[in-house]
Amino acid sequence: MPNQNRNGLQDLDILDLDDLLSEEDTSAAKKPQAEKKKAADKPQAEKKKAADKPQAEKKKAADKPQEEKKKAADKPQQEKAAEAPDEEDGDGICFVELEPVSGSRKSPSAAGTPGPARNRREQDRPRAPQRMPREERPQNGQHEEEPERAKRLPLHLILPILIAAVLVIAIVRFFIWSKGSDLNIDRTGSEDRFNIEVNDNMVYLPESKLEGHEDDGVTTILCLGNEPFSEDTSDSGLAAQIAELGDCNVINAAFPDSQVTCENAVYSTENLESMDDIFNLFYVSYAISIGDFSSLKTVASVHTEDPAYMNSVEALESTDFDKVDIIAVMYDGIDYINGMAMQNPDVPDELTTYVGSLINSFKLLQEKYPYIRIVFLSPYYAEYDGSSSRTTDLGNGTIVNYFQWAYDTCGSCSVSFLDNYYGSVNETNYKKYLSDDIHLNAEGRTKVADHFVYKVLQDNYDEYNAQTLSVAK
Fold it and tell me: What does each C-alpha distance from 456 to 188, 258, 416, 442, 452 come to in angstroms?
Protein backbone atom coordinates (compact mmCIF):
# COMPACT_ATOMS: atom_id res chain seq x y z
CA MET A 1 0.00 0.00 0.00
CA PRO A 2 2.67 2.49 0.86
CA ASN A 3 4.37 1.86 -2.43
CA GLN A 4 1.22 2.23 -4.28
CA ASN A 5 0.48 5.47 -2.54
CA ARG A 6 3.92 6.63 -3.20
CA ASN A 7 3.68 5.54 -6.79
CA GLY A 8 0.30 7.18 -7.09
CA LEU A 9 1.64 10.44 -5.70
CA GLN A 10 4.56 10.15 -7.97
CA ASP A 11 2.25 9.60 -10.87
CA LEU A 12 0.20 12.61 -9.82
CA ASP A 13 3.27 14.73 -9.60
CA ILE A 14 4.32 13.63 -13.00
CA LEU A 15 0.91 14.53 -14.44
CA ASP A 16 1.04 17.92 -12.80
CA LEU A 17 4.49 18.48 -14.15
CA ASP A 18 3.34 17.51 -17.63
CA ASP A 19 0.47 19.95 -17.41
CA LEU A 20 2.74 22.71 -16.30
CA LEU A 21 5.12 21.97 -19.13
CA SER A 22 2.30 21.94 -21.65
CA GLU A 23 1.00 25.29 -20.31
CA GLU A 24 4.47 26.80 -20.54
CA ASP A 25 4.77 25.58 -24.10
CA THR A 26 1.39 27.07 -24.96
CA SER A 27 2.28 30.36 -23.33
CA ALA A 28 5.58 30.38 -25.15
CA ALA A 29 3.77 29.78 -28.41
CA LYS A 30 1.21 32.54 -27.81
CA LYS A 31 3.77 35.11 -26.63
CA PRO A 32 5.10 36.02 -30.08
CA GLN A 33 1.54 36.46 -31.36
CA ALA A 34 0.66 38.78 -28.46
CA GLU A 35 3.80 40.82 -29.01
CA LYS A 36 3.04 41.04 -32.70
CA LYS A 37 -0.53 42.21 -32.02
CA LYS A 38 0.71 44.73 -29.46
CA ALA A 39 3.19 46.10 -31.99
CA ALA A 40 0.41 46.39 -34.59
CA ASP A 41 -1.94 48.21 -32.22
CA LYS A 42 0.72 50.64 -31.00
CA PRO A 43 0.54 53.07 -33.98
CA GLN A 44 -3.26 53.22 -33.75
CA ALA A 45 -3.06 53.97 -30.04
CA GLU A 46 -0.52 56.70 -30.64
CA LYS A 47 -2.66 58.16 -33.43
CA LYS A 48 -5.76 58.14 -31.20
CA LYS A 49 -3.78 59.69 -28.37
CA ALA A 50 -2.53 62.44 -30.71
CA ALA A 51 -6.11 63.09 -31.91
CA ASP A 52 -7.46 63.27 -28.37
CA LYS A 53 -4.70 65.56 -27.15
CA PRO A 54 -6.15 68.85 -28.62
CA GLN A 55 -9.56 68.02 -27.18
CA ALA A 56 -8.07 67.34 -23.77
CA GLU A 57 -6.12 70.57 -23.89
CA LYS A 58 -9.24 72.47 -24.98
CA LYS A 59 -11.26 70.91 -22.16
CA LYS A 60 -8.52 71.67 -19.68
CA ALA A 61 -8.41 75.31 -20.86
CA ALA A 62 -12.22 75.55 -20.55
CA ASP A 63 -12.18 74.07 -17.03
CA LYS A 64 -9.31 76.25 -15.82
CA PRO A 65 -11.44 79.40 -15.20
CA GLN A 66 -13.99 77.35 -13.27
CA GLU A 67 -11.28 75.79 -11.08
CA GLU A 68 -9.78 79.23 -10.39
CA LYS A 69 -13.22 80.62 -9.55
CA LYS A 70 -13.91 77.67 -7.22
CA LYS A 71 -10.51 78.01 -5.60
CA ALA A 72 -11.15 81.74 -5.01
CA ALA A 73 -14.54 80.94 -3.43
CA ASP A 74 -13.04 78.25 -1.10
CA LYS A 75 -10.12 80.39 0.02
CA PRO A 76 -12.04 82.34 2.75
CA GLN A 77 -13.40 79.08 4.13
CA GLN A 78 -9.93 77.56 4.31
CA GLU A 79 -8.62 80.64 6.12
CA LYS A 80 -11.51 80.48 8.60
CA ALA A 81 -10.95 76.79 9.17
CA ALA A 82 -7.26 77.45 9.79
CA GLU A 83 -8.10 80.01 12.48
CA ALA A 84 -10.65 77.71 14.20
CA PRO A 85 -9.44 75.45 17.08
CA ASP A 86 -8.28 72.03 16.22
CA GLU A 87 -10.93 69.36 16.19
CA GLU A 88 -10.72 65.82 17.43
CA ASP A 89 -12.19 62.73 15.91
CA GLY A 90 -14.13 60.16 17.81
CA ASP A 91 -10.94 58.39 19.04
CA GLY A 92 -9.63 61.50 20.81
CA ILE A 93 -6.95 62.13 18.19
CA CYS A 94 -6.45 65.71 17.18
CA PHE A 95 -5.78 66.59 13.56
CA VAL A 96 -4.17 69.81 12.60
CA GLU A 97 -4.03 71.12 9.00
CA LEU A 98 -0.61 72.36 8.11
CA GLU A 99 0.01 74.83 5.31
CA PRO A 100 2.57 73.53 2.87
CA VAL A 101 5.88 75.32 3.01
CA SER A 102 7.08 76.84 -0.22
CA GLY A 103 9.36 74.40 -1.91
CA SER A 104 8.33 71.54 0.40
CA ARG A 105 6.54 68.44 -0.62
CA LYS A 106 2.75 68.91 -0.94
CA SER A 107 0.29 66.82 0.96
CA PRO A 108 -1.86 64.33 -0.89
CA SER A 109 -4.90 66.63 -0.71
CA ALA A 110 -2.94 69.59 -2.06
CA ALA A 111 -1.61 67.43 -4.86
CA GLY A 112 -5.13 66.61 -5.90
CA THR A 113 -5.08 63.00 -4.55
CA PRO A 114 -6.21 62.91 -0.90
CA GLY A 115 -5.22 59.91 1.15
CA PRO A 116 -7.88 57.41 2.27
CA ALA A 117 -7.36 58.07 5.97
CA ARG A 118 -7.74 61.82 5.52
CA ASN A 119 -10.85 61.34 3.41
CA ARG A 120 -12.34 59.24 6.18
CA ARG A 121 -11.50 61.81 8.83
CA GLU A 122 -12.89 64.70 6.72
CA GLN A 123 -16.11 62.79 6.10
CA ASP A 124 -16.55 62.11 9.84
CA ARG A 125 -15.73 65.70 10.85
CA PRO A 126 -18.87 67.85 11.40
CA ARG A 127 -19.11 70.64 8.85
CA ALA A 128 -20.04 74.20 9.78
CA PRO A 129 -22.34 76.08 7.40
CA GLN A 130 -20.36 77.95 4.77
CA ARG A 131 -20.79 81.69 4.51
CA MET A 132 -20.42 83.69 1.31
CA PRO A 133 -18.31 86.85 1.50
CA ARG A 134 -20.36 90.03 1.74
CA GLU A 135 -19.07 91.43 -1.54
CA GLU A 136 -20.19 88.28 -3.38
CA ARG A 137 -23.70 88.15 -1.89
CA PRO A 138 -26.54 89.07 -4.37
CA GLN A 139 -28.13 92.45 -3.63
CA ASN A 140 -31.88 93.14 -3.66
CA GLY A 141 -33.28 92.91 -7.20
CA GLN A 142 -30.03 91.38 -8.44
CA HIS A 143 -30.23 87.89 -9.84
CA GLU A 144 -27.86 85.52 -11.45
CA GLU A 145 -27.01 86.10 -15.07
CA GLU A 146 -29.77 84.78 -17.29
CA PRO A 147 -28.96 82.45 -20.14
CA GLU A 148 -28.42 83.93 -23.56
CA ARG A 149 -31.66 82.36 -24.77
CA ALA A 150 -33.69 84.26 -22.17
CA LYS A 151 -32.30 87.60 -23.40
CA ARG A 152 -33.72 87.15 -26.90
CA LEU A 153 -37.07 88.80 -27.81
CA PRO A 154 -39.78 86.17 -28.32
CA LEU A 155 -40.60 85.57 -31.98
CA HIS A 156 -44.34 86.01 -31.50
CA LEU A 157 -43.71 89.60 -30.35
CA ILE A 158 -41.43 90.63 -33.24
CA LEU A 159 -44.11 90.54 -35.97
CA PRO A 160 -46.66 92.73 -34.14
CA ILE A 161 -43.92 95.23 -33.31
CA LEU A 162 -42.85 95.42 -36.98
CA ILE A 163 -46.45 95.85 -38.15
CA ALA A 164 -47.05 98.59 -35.61
CA ALA A 165 -43.86 100.39 -36.67
CA VAL A 166 -44.83 100.26 -40.37
CA LEU A 167 -48.32 101.58 -39.58
CA VAL A 168 -46.92 104.45 -37.54
CA ILE A 169 -44.51 105.42 -40.33
CA ALA A 170 -47.28 105.21 -42.97
CA ILE A 171 -49.67 107.34 -40.92
CA VAL A 172 -47.03 109.98 -40.25
CA ARG A 173 -46.02 110.16 -43.91
CA PHE A 174 -49.66 110.34 -44.99
CA PHE A 175 -50.38 113.32 -42.75
CA ILE A 176 -47.21 115.05 -43.93
CA TRP A 177 -48.17 114.44 -47.57
CA SER A 178 -51.82 115.48 -47.12
CA LYS A 179 -50.76 118.69 -45.44
CA GLY A 180 -48.78 119.69 -48.52
CA SER A 181 -46.77 122.85 -48.83
CA ASP A 182 -47.33 126.39 -49.97
CA LEU A 183 -47.11 126.91 -53.72
CA ASN A 184 -45.55 130.20 -54.68
CA ILE A 185 -46.38 131.25 -58.23
CA ASP A 186 -44.61 134.14 -59.83
CA ARG A 187 -47.31 135.88 -61.84
CA THR A 188 -45.01 138.62 -63.08
CA GLY A 189 -45.44 138.91 -66.82
CA SER A 190 -47.95 136.04 -66.96
CA GLU A 191 -49.47 137.56 -70.10
CA ASP A 192 -46.34 136.56 -71.99
CA ARG A 193 -45.99 133.10 -70.53
CA PHE A 194 -46.96 129.81 -72.18
CA ASN A 195 -49.66 128.92 -69.64
CA ILE A 196 -51.43 126.57 -72.09
CA GLU A 197 -49.85 123.71 -73.99
CA VAL A 198 -50.66 124.00 -77.68
CA ASN A 199 -51.10 120.70 -79.56
CA ASP A 200 -50.01 121.66 -83.05
CA ASN A 201 -48.84 118.77 -85.21
CA MET A 202 -47.20 119.74 -88.46
CA VAL A 203 -46.81 117.04 -91.14
CA TYR A 204 -44.64 117.75 -94.16
CA LEU A 205 -44.89 115.99 -97.52
CA PRO A 206 -42.04 113.66 -98.48
CA GLU A 207 -40.09 114.31 -101.66
CA SER A 208 -41.78 111.36 -103.36
CA LYS A 209 -45.13 113.18 -103.18
CA LEU A 210 -43.71 116.23 -104.94
CA GLU A 211 -42.29 114.39 -107.96
CA GLY A 212 -43.66 115.75 -111.28
CA HIS A 213 -45.05 118.91 -109.70
CA GLU A 214 -43.57 122.26 -110.74
CA ASP A 215 -43.42 124.98 -108.11
CA ASP A 216 -44.35 128.37 -109.54
CA GLY A 217 -42.77 130.22 -106.61
CA VAL A 218 -46.09 131.51 -105.26
CA THR A 219 -47.78 129.90 -102.27
CA THR A 220 -51.42 129.26 -103.13
CA ILE A 221 -53.88 128.22 -100.44
CA LEU A 222 -57.42 126.89 -101.02
CA CYS A 223 -59.73 127.41 -98.01
CA LEU A 224 -62.59 124.96 -97.33
CA GLY A 225 -65.01 125.02 -94.39
CA ASN A 226 -67.88 127.09 -93.03
CA GLU A 227 -68.36 130.33 -91.02
CA PRO A 228 -64.77 131.06 -89.98
CA PHE A 229 -63.98 131.59 -93.70
CA SER A 230 -67.42 132.32 -95.19
CA GLU A 231 -68.84 134.78 -92.64
CA ASP A 232 -66.53 137.63 -93.64
CA THR A 233 -65.07 137.68 -97.14
CA SER A 234 -63.78 141.26 -96.91
CA ASP A 235 -60.23 142.37 -96.23
CA SER A 236 -60.82 141.80 -92.49
CA GLY A 237 -61.93 138.21 -93.09
CA LEU A 238 -59.83 135.20 -92.14
CA ALA A 239 -58.78 134.30 -95.69
CA ALA A 240 -57.77 137.87 -96.49
CA GLN A 241 -55.72 138.20 -93.27
CA ILE A 242 -53.86 134.95 -94.00
CA ALA A 243 -53.03 136.30 -97.47
CA GLU A 244 -51.78 139.58 -96.02
CA LEU A 245 -49.75 138.13 -93.12
CA GLY A 246 -48.36 135.26 -95.16
CA ASP A 247 -47.79 137.15 -98.40
CA CYS A 248 -49.53 134.43 -100.37
CA ASN A 249 -52.46 133.81 -102.72
CA VAL A 250 -55.63 132.61 -100.94
CA ILE A 251 -58.80 131.17 -102.58
CA ASN A 252 -61.92 131.15 -100.39
CA ALA A 253 -64.33 128.30 -101.22
CA ALA A 254 -66.13 127.86 -97.89
CA PHE A 255 -69.89 127.21 -97.70
CA PRO A 256 -72.08 128.69 -94.93
CA ASP A 257 -73.81 126.32 -92.50
CA SER A 258 -71.91 123.32 -93.82
CA GLN A 259 -70.24 120.72 -91.59
CA VAL A 260 -67.75 117.87 -91.68
CA THR A 261 -70.18 114.98 -91.22
CA CYS A 262 -72.61 113.86 -93.91
CA GLU A 263 -76.27 113.88 -92.95
CA ASN A 264 -77.03 110.87 -95.14
CA ALA A 265 -74.91 107.94 -96.23
CA VAL A 266 -76.43 108.27 -99.71
CA TYR A 267 -77.09 111.70 -101.20
CA SER A 268 -80.77 112.58 -101.32
CA THR A 269 -82.75 115.32 -103.14
CA GLU A 270 -85.90 114.73 -101.12
CA ASN A 271 -85.86 118.23 -99.63
CA LEU A 272 -83.63 121.28 -99.45
CA GLU A 273 -82.09 120.21 -96.12
CA SER A 274 -81.05 116.88 -97.64
CA MET A 275 -79.77 118.66 -100.75
CA ASP A 276 -77.59 120.95 -98.62
CA ASP A 277 -75.64 117.84 -97.64
CA ILE A 278 -73.71 118.41 -100.85
CA PHE A 279 -71.90 121.38 -99.29
CA ASN A 280 -70.42 119.21 -96.52
CA LEU A 281 -66.73 118.32 -96.63
CA PHE A 282 -66.99 114.88 -98.23
CA TYR A 283 -69.10 115.94 -101.23
CA VAL A 284 -66.99 119.04 -101.83
CA SER A 285 -63.84 116.87 -101.73
CA TYR A 286 -65.50 114.41 -104.11
CA ALA A 287 -66.34 117.21 -106.56
CA ILE A 288 -62.71 118.40 -106.43
CA SER A 289 -61.40 114.87 -107.02
CA ILE A 290 -63.53 114.37 -110.17
CA GLY A 291 -63.25 118.00 -111.31
CA ASP A 292 -67.06 118.37 -111.70
CA PHE A 293 -68.83 121.13 -109.71
CA SER A 294 -72.18 121.07 -111.51
CA SER A 295 -74.08 119.45 -108.61
CA LEU A 296 -72.71 122.08 -106.22
CA LYS A 297 -73.74 124.83 -108.64
CA THR A 298 -77.29 123.46 -108.95
CA VAL A 299 -77.93 123.48 -105.22
CA ALA A 300 -76.13 126.83 -104.72
CA SER A 301 -78.50 128.45 -107.20
CA VAL A 302 -81.37 127.69 -104.81
CA HIS A 303 -79.75 129.82 -102.07
CA THR A 304 -80.50 133.19 -103.53
CA GLU A 305 -80.59 134.72 -100.02
CA ASP A 306 -76.81 134.30 -99.62
CA PRO A 307 -74.45 134.83 -102.59
CA ALA A 308 -71.62 133.12 -100.65
CA TYR A 309 -72.74 129.70 -101.93
CA MET A 310 -72.43 130.61 -105.60
CA ASN A 311 -69.24 132.58 -105.01
CA SER A 312 -67.58 129.50 -103.51
CA VAL A 313 -68.69 127.27 -106.39
CA GLU A 314 -67.28 129.74 -108.92
CA ALA A 315 -64.03 129.93 -106.95
CA LEU A 316 -63.66 126.14 -107.19
CA GLU A 317 -64.40 126.15 -110.93
CA SER A 318 -61.73 128.77 -111.59
CA THR A 319 -59.02 127.16 -109.42
CA ASP A 320 -55.95 125.73 -111.11
CA PHE A 321 -55.17 122.84 -108.77
CA ASP A 322 -51.75 122.36 -110.33
CA LYS A 323 -50.76 125.62 -108.62
CA VAL A 324 -52.37 124.89 -105.25
CA ASP A 325 -49.85 124.18 -102.51
CA ILE A 326 -52.05 123.95 -99.40
CA ILE A 327 -55.70 123.11 -98.73
CA ALA A 328 -56.78 124.65 -95.40
CA VAL A 329 -59.89 123.06 -93.86
CA MET A 330 -61.66 124.78 -90.94
CA TYR A 331 -65.09 124.24 -89.40
CA ASP A 332 -66.38 125.67 -86.14
CA GLY A 333 -68.24 123.52 -83.58
CA ILE A 334 -71.20 122.84 -85.90
CA ASP A 335 -70.79 119.05 -85.71
CA TYR A 336 -70.76 119.28 -81.92
CA ILE A 337 -73.88 121.51 -81.89
CA ASN A 338 -75.79 119.18 -84.24
CA GLY A 339 -74.82 116.15 -82.14
CA MET A 340 -73.24 114.23 -85.01
CA ALA A 341 -71.79 110.81 -84.22
CA MET A 342 -68.04 110.93 -83.73
CA GLN A 343 -67.00 107.47 -84.92
CA ASN A 344 -68.16 103.90 -85.52
CA PRO A 345 -65.66 101.35 -84.21
CA ASP A 346 -67.10 98.66 -86.52
CA VAL A 347 -67.00 100.89 -89.64
CA PRO A 348 -64.24 103.50 -89.12
CA ASP A 349 -64.87 105.26 -92.49
CA GLU A 350 -68.65 105.54 -92.19
CA LEU A 351 -69.74 108.81 -93.82
CA THR A 352 -72.35 109.66 -91.21
CA THR A 353 -69.64 109.93 -88.52
CA TYR A 354 -67.21 112.76 -87.88
CA VAL A 355 -64.14 110.53 -88.17
CA GLY A 356 -65.46 108.65 -91.23
CA SER A 357 -66.10 111.85 -93.19
CA LEU A 358 -62.60 113.13 -92.38
CA ILE A 359 -60.97 109.87 -93.48
CA ASN A 360 -62.84 109.71 -96.79
CA SER A 361 -62.35 113.40 -97.58
CA PHE A 362 -58.59 113.32 -96.92
CA LYS A 363 -58.24 110.16 -98.97
CA LEU A 364 -60.02 111.66 -102.01
CA LEU A 365 -57.87 114.80 -102.00
CA GLN A 366 -54.57 113.00 -101.39
CA GLU A 367 -55.17 110.44 -104.12
CA LYS A 368 -56.08 113.08 -106.70
CA TYR A 369 -53.45 115.69 -105.71
CA PRO A 370 -50.66 114.01 -103.68
CA TYR A 371 -48.44 117.11 -103.90
CA ILE A 372 -50.98 119.33 -102.07
CA ARG A 373 -50.44 119.61 -98.34
CA ILE A 374 -53.62 119.42 -96.26
CA VAL A 375 -53.89 121.42 -93.00
CA PHE A 376 -56.86 120.87 -90.68
CA LEU A 377 -57.67 123.81 -88.37
CA SER A 378 -59.48 122.52 -85.28
CA PRO A 379 -62.68 124.06 -83.85
CA TYR A 380 -62.11 126.61 -81.11
CA TYR A 381 -63.65 127.00 -77.65
CA ALA A 382 -67.18 128.43 -77.51
CA GLU A 383 -70.23 128.50 -75.29
CA TYR A 384 -73.67 127.46 -76.50
CA ASP A 385 -76.78 128.61 -74.64
CA GLY A 386 -74.53 129.74 -71.81
CA SER A 387 -72.95 126.28 -71.37
CA SER A 388 -69.26 125.50 -71.75
CA SER A 389 -68.44 123.34 -74.75
CA ARG A 390 -65.67 121.81 -72.68
CA THR A 391 -68.06 120.18 -70.20
CA THR A 392 -71.47 120.10 -71.92
CA ASP A 393 -72.47 116.98 -73.84
CA LEU A 394 -74.98 117.78 -76.59
CA GLY A 395 -75.56 114.19 -77.64
CA ASN A 396 -72.24 112.59 -78.59
CA GLY A 397 -69.70 114.12 -76.25
CA THR A 398 -68.12 117.47 -75.60
CA ILE A 399 -66.24 119.56 -78.11
CA VAL A 400 -63.02 118.29 -76.55
CA ASN A 401 -63.97 114.80 -77.75
CA TYR A 402 -64.37 116.05 -81.33
CA PHE A 403 -61.07 117.86 -80.99
CA GLN A 404 -59.29 114.69 -79.86
CA TRP A 405 -60.78 112.50 -82.60
CA ALA A 406 -59.81 115.05 -85.23
CA TYR A 407 -56.26 115.18 -83.86
CA ASP A 408 -55.90 111.39 -83.98
CA THR A 409 -57.44 111.09 -87.45
CA CYS A 410 -55.18 113.76 -88.90
CA GLY A 411 -52.16 112.00 -87.47
CA SER A 412 -53.15 108.66 -89.01
CA CYS A 413 -53.88 110.31 -92.40
CA SER A 414 -50.64 112.37 -92.55
CA VAL A 415 -52.52 115.65 -92.33
CA SER A 416 -51.18 118.69 -90.44
CA PHE A 417 -53.22 119.70 -87.38
CA LEU A 418 -53.47 123.30 -86.13
CA ASP A 419 -54.75 123.56 -82.55
CA ASN A 420 -57.23 126.45 -82.29
CA TYR A 421 -58.95 125.10 -79.17
CA TYR A 422 -55.95 125.68 -76.90
CA GLY A 423 -53.69 127.75 -79.14
CA SER A 424 -56.03 130.42 -80.53
CA VAL A 425 -59.41 130.86 -78.83
CA ASN A 426 -59.55 129.06 -75.49
CA GLU A 427 -61.46 129.17 -72.23
CA THR A 428 -59.34 132.04 -70.87
CA ASN A 429 -59.63 134.50 -73.79
CA TYR A 430 -62.84 133.63 -75.69
CA LYS A 431 -64.58 136.81 -74.50
CA LYS A 432 -61.97 138.80 -76.37
CA TYR A 433 -62.10 136.85 -79.64
CA LEU A 434 -65.79 135.85 -80.03
CA SER A 435 -68.68 138.15 -80.93
CA ASP A 436 -71.52 136.10 -79.41
CA ASP A 437 -69.60 133.35 -77.59
CA ILE A 438 -69.81 131.32 -80.84
CA HIS A 439 -68.55 133.23 -83.91
CA LEU A 440 -65.18 134.85 -84.42
CA ASN A 441 -64.94 138.63 -84.34
CA ALA A 442 -62.28 140.65 -86.18
CA GLU A 443 -59.70 140.10 -83.43
CA GLY A 444 -60.51 136.42 -83.34
CA ARG A 445 -59.92 136.04 -87.06
CA THR A 446 -56.64 137.89 -86.68
CA LYS A 447 -55.63 135.50 -83.91
CA VAL A 448 -56.36 132.41 -86.03
CA ALA A 449 -54.57 133.91 -89.06
CA ASP A 450 -51.55 134.77 -86.90
CA HIS A 451 -51.40 131.20 -85.59
CA PHE A 452 -51.72 129.72 -89.10
CA VAL A 453 -48.99 131.88 -90.63
CA TYR A 454 -46.61 131.33 -87.69
CA LYS A 455 -46.81 127.51 -87.74
CA VAL A 456 -47.76 126.59 -91.33
CA LEU A 457 -46.21 129.25 -93.56
CA GLN A 458 -43.21 130.30 -91.46
CA ASP A 459 -42.49 126.74 -90.25
CA ASN A 460 -41.67 127.83 -86.70
CA TYR A 461 -40.84 124.84 -84.51
CA ASP A 462 -41.30 126.80 -81.29
CA GLU A 463 -44.58 126.38 -79.47
CA TYR A 464 -47.13 129.03 -80.40
CA ASN A 465 -47.98 131.49 -77.62
CA ALA A 466 -51.75 131.45 -77.14
CA GLN A 467 -51.69 134.66 -75.07
CA THR A 468 -50.15 137.04 -77.63
CA LEU A 469 -49.77 137.58 -81.35
CA SER A 470 -46.54 136.40 -82.96
CA VAL A 471 -46.84 137.72 -86.54
CA ALA A 472 -49.65 140.31 -86.63
CA LYS A 473 -48.10 142.87 -84.27
Answer: 31, 24, 9, 21, 6
